[in-house]
Amino acid sequence: MMMTNHYDSDVLIIGSGIAGATAALLLADAGLAVTVVTRSKDPHESNTYYAQGGIIYRGKNDSTAMLTEDVMRAGAGHCNAEAVTILGDEGPELVKSILIEKLNVAFDQDKSGELSLAREGGHAIPRIVHATDATGKAIQIALIRAVGTHPNIQLLAAHTAIDLLTPSHHSLNRLAVYEPLACIGAYLFDQVSDRVVLCTAKKTLLATGGVGQLFLRTTNPAGARGDGIAMANRAGARIINAEFIQFHPTTFYQSRAPHLLISEAVRGEGARLVHADGTPFMQHYAPEWQDLAPRDIVARSIHEEMIKHDVPNVYLDLCSYIPARRIKSHFPNIRRSCLQYGIDISKDLVPVVPAAHYFCGGIWVDTWGRSTIGHLYAAGETACTGVHGANRLASTSLLEGLVWGSRTARHILKHRENPYLVHASDIPPWCDEGSVTADPGLIAQDMSYIRHIMWNYVGLVRNSQRLKRAIRELRSLEVEIEHFYRVTRVNDSLIGLRNMVRNAIIVTFAAWENNQNTGCHFRE
Fold first, then answer.
1. pLDDT tens digits, residue range 334-349?
2. Whether residue 295 lies in the annotated active site
3. Cα separation of 387 and 368, whole Å?
4. Which of 263, 306, 359, 443 lies most in the core, judged by the most C-beta atoms within 10 Å?
5. What is the 3 state secondary structure string of 222-233?
6. Parallel, antiparallel or unpaired: strands 239-240 and 362-364
């Protein structure tokens, strides 16, 4: 497979969620030529699209200091204070100027026509705005509508990024190895034409989402393999806080059903975690917070109850605590999804289990989204600004993506040039040495093996013996997968498998090196 196409733009953005799409719009509005790449055939498909919860706005008598206190408390004191302050200072105004005024996202309103503000776990006051129980979906639809019609944006769907282009690694001029490490674009796999194309750019932004697909159970969509994180790691970027994987306590559990997220907002409305007989149990684990305890405590409590009672799941009881009319009006999408599997949340107990939800770590970036590789930026769940620390506060993720999507765009506009950009002719054409067609059965088996290792050994509760075994098995598996990758013709699944095993090792080593119980990292 030889590379035949070449794209060139001012900015290459890999990922089409809130961080990538926000940056793309701001840069394109300023006149830059922007290429947005997403591995999905549908550019709406992203972690943003599936975010049921809301986004932080500004509560009555609220302040940056009050929000900072809540974020720092949830993050177990491990947050970057400067980044948290930036989130509080800039976030609410960006929600207003970009999401409400520019994109016309229809957030819920109260009877007086004002934005309806909700309170979620860990927040001192109501400050969260929602679009019913599909806030991320409403935001993503509005963003992609604007991105898809912008004359300065080229949107490449069904294109999978393979590796970042760095002159010190890829330039035909071997003296480039003496230059500072810098990024000038990426190799992309076009899933439709089944060929690899070159995309060069003065600046590159990684916004590929999290790593939920490393785990057997996750709320994340299929693309959350950590592609951007693995590519950045191979190129030499610094990755931090990778041990901090937040598990959502409540995802729908039924044989052959997807792990549908059951929003924390249902417990905010009064729902309780119970056993099959309706008996609540969170009062035994968190007497003060009970069912609204921080997510890591709730998730581990459920895990312990499942082991103690030898049951595959626990239940959420909405119908005993919330009026049916309110359930139907506040959680229509959750109800509709569960009804597909025979569960009416306004009448029935809802079977739930914890699942991997959010990656608090990622590519280290400064307050402007710059990584340790020149001209390479990262934003959203792919990046680690330090806002989330050791455990993410509810409804901060969409806001962080919005804020750092904006900040990376602003920084790029002030520093447009890349002195290390080389001509496309100096980059060797992609030559796929593989002669074997990828066997989907082998790829599926290896992916399943990774997910089981991560779930059983590097999941909610970790210990030294489990982590040692995970490291041994993952390192051996990576050797096999790298060989498989070298002799097999590239496709999206193979690229994803290679990235998954690399990210699994990154997460596991981080968990091994941190022997302190902090936030969502818990070692026995």
1. 999 999 999 999 999 9
2. yes
3. 13
4. 359
5. CCCCCHHHHHHH
6. antiparallel
